[in-house]
Design brief:
The complex is a heterodimer of chains A (321) and B (341).
Chain A: E1 5-16, E2 19-31, E3 36-41, H1 47-54, E4 63-71, E5 74-75, H2 81-90, E6 92-95, H3 99-102, H4 109-120, H5 125-138, H6 144-147, H7 157-169, E7 175-179, H8 187-204, E8 207-211, H9 215-221, E9 224-229, E10 232-238, H10 239-244, H11 249-256, H12 296-300, E11 306-307, E12 312-313
Parallel strand pairs in A: 3-8, 3-9, 6-7, 7-8
Antiparallel strand pairs in A: 1-2, 1-4, 4-5, 9-10, 10-12, 11-12
Helix pairs in contact in A: 4-5, 5-7
Chain B: E1 4-16, H1 21-27, E2 33-45, E3 49-53, H2 60-67, E4 75-80, E5 83-84, H3 91-100, E6 101-104, H4 118-128, H5 135-148, H6 165-177, E7 183-187, H7 195-212, E8 215-219, H8 223-229, E9 232-237, E10 240-246, H9 247-252, H10 257-264, H11 304-308, E11 314-315, E12 321-322, H12 325-329, H13 337-340
Helix pairs in contact in B: 4-5, 4-6, 5-6
The complex binds adenosine-5'-triphosphate (ATP) (2 copies), iron/sulfur cluster (SF4) (2 copies) and magnesium ion (MG) (2 copies).
Chain lengths: 321, 341
Amino acid sequence: MAALLEVEHLRIEFPTRRGTLVAVDDISLQIAEGEVLGVVGESGAGKSLTGTAIIGLLEPPGRIAAGEIRLMGRRIDNLPYEEMRKIRGKQIGAVFQDPLTSLNPLYSVGRQLVETIQTHTDMSPTQARTRALELLHEVGIPAAERRIDHYPHQFSGGMRQRVVIALALCVNPKLVIADEPTTALDVSIQAQIIALLKRLCRDHGTAIMLITHDMGVIAETADRVAVMYAGRIAEIGPVRSVIKEAKHPYSHGLMGSIPKINDEKERLDQIEGSMPRLTEIPPGCAFNPRCPHVFDRCRVERPELLDTGVTQASCWLYAHG
Amino acid sequence: MAKPLVKVAGLSRYFDVSAPWLNRVLDGQPRLMLRAVDGIDFEINKGETLALVGESGCGKSTVARLVVGLYRPSTGSIVFDGVDMAGLGGRAEMAPIRRRLQMIFQDPYASLNPRWRVSAIVSEPIRAFNLIKDEAAIVARVGQLLRQVGLSPVDGEKYPHEFSGGQRQRISIARALSSQPEFLVCDEPTSALDVSVQAQILNLMKDLQRQLGLTYLFISHNLAVVRHIADRVGVMYLGRLAEIGPKSTVFSLPRHPYTRMLLDTIPDLDMTGRQRTPVAGEVPNPINPPSGCAFHPRCPFANDRCRSERPEPKLNDTGSITACHAVEEGRLPAGPLTAAA
Ligand SMILES: Nc1ncnc2c1ncn2[C@@H]1O[C@H](COP(=O)(O)OP(=O)(O)OP(=O)(O)O)[C@@H](O)[C@H]1O
Ligand SMILES: Nc1ncnc2c1ncn2[C@@H]1O[C@H](COP(=O)(O)OP(=O)(O)OP(=O)(O)O)[C@@H](O)[C@H]1O
Ligand code: SF4
Ligand code: SF4
Ligand SMILES: [Mg+2]
Ligand SMILES: [Mg+2]
């Protein structure tokens, strides 16, 4: 079966006075119907940009410089704005990292939900309001009947995020790009939202690209995980293998820095150094200045995704022969 | 014992969420007050970290904003190093105190001015409080601060939109550190960061605390992070403190039924197949909170007293403070809740 979403050799650039920045460099991935692909990795690695490119909301001067994005076999990265807007409403839903950009501070949340529902369906205003209430209940807003007429600033950070989730789900999309959907939420609401997302996958075959820093959420929700570093995929594979036995030295270090609830250590393990800025990506493997296993080849030749057995990692340690 | 640096007593903050006046009159609607924070007490000693945890909407950010003086309390007092903040009138009187306390906001997007360069953002407190006069020295200090949070001095030339979410959070941390505060209020400072940067920032915060004797009020919903960073932990429920005590006590001998449930919802990284137990029941509504103990509709130990009488905070023999009738009456079994419920 063909994948629901296919991203091939995606490259995103920012032309600047200081030269062209390559923020996403040759990323390929697929998501099947009903599948949850987790995307994790260093802050600034290009996770949000990849998500934004898929929903066609990359802001200039950022541009897709190479590659293709296909939804159900149809190419969507080169569609005119109006056509993409329709796809965005009906087939792809988005939950952004920043809840404030998705909410209009001047309108009550109810009005925003009702308008979105009415734009993409032929529901009457009353039906749309009922649906909006239902969604607010589903994402766990207490006293939704009263809260529906409140404005975004009257909600707590986590509640705003839940409103954005409701907004993304209001027309049962095929694919949801969820960028840090639970970051602002406490563990118990998180559990609720995750249950909601899983139910969507099961009942409607919705596929989800779940971008998050929260490895607990990934462990519980994702089927596969992609680990990103400096605009590329460092490792991709089944969730269990990537979390438990990451093969790429970066993913390995990343999993090691997770604070554990039963740990009494004074300092957390950290990967020394920081990700290179986009203008200073070293030749060869981008992780080489921080890598404990670096060897000569890593400094000159860039590794492609290689088979490690269960996962694929872009690391020369897994070159055969 | 050391005198606390921060002492909060009977602190409340209510928000008026009534419909506009005209609608109220026409539709005969009552005035609606939302009790975001409803009578809490705590102290933080110098050099110590108090963490606040609790479900979304329980009032954590409101406490943070009260403590740094962004909201005025509806009732209660906040005493910082012996000075009652409510007694301070104008900006001029606030200024010497404001320099000594800084806040890192939950939302790194909303808290950075998009039209300012990063260097201007980071140096703003330095200029506002006139801490360094020499321009070259300010530039040097900004560069040092950016390096301290894992950015580079050349990043000062850029604007916030050129950074990713986690990088922006580091900018706000650099900004908060720039006035060399003694007390930092951190509202979810690392939840926008990936775990490796989070580890670096948490280690950095601990190092700074040790070197500079900083005091933190740290808000997070990530209990593993709290366990790592905090000395004491306060668990909030619907605007009140359900339990507060030394970290080790709250995590290993939780008394309050809500604390115990919260500990049960921690995500399972080992994927041993354990199903996460979401706290049962709906988060109640602070506009119209349940009578008596606000937790009673979700509590397996609720009885008639719980439904009518609000439990007051009481000191336990373990050194933690709990607001729960069952704990006080000694009718709560020790050990895991799931087995008891
Ligand atoms: N408008 C822009 N101009 C220049 N560079 C940009 C712009 N927007 C993003 N970038 C750069 O692109 C890179 C990727 O950003 P992106 O937001 O995708 O990161 P991310 O992986 O989502 O990080 P985080 O986990 O911190 O949210 C970053 O290094 C960022 O600095
Ligand atoms: N300016 C305001 N006007 C009206 N209500 C408000 C305002 N600010 C906060 N509230 C309400 O006060 C309650 C507590 O909000 P607060 O932001 O303190 O929660 P929180 O514990 O920080 O939650 P989260 O974990 O989601 O950030 C919420 O019910 C919220 O809707
Ligand atoms: S390719 Fe080399 S430098 Fe890169 S991760 Fe593998 S071993 Fe380390
Ligand atoms: S006071 Fe009663 S309802 Fe509240 S937590 Fe204790 S036992 Fe439960
Ligand atoms: Mg991002
Ligand atoms: Mg908050």
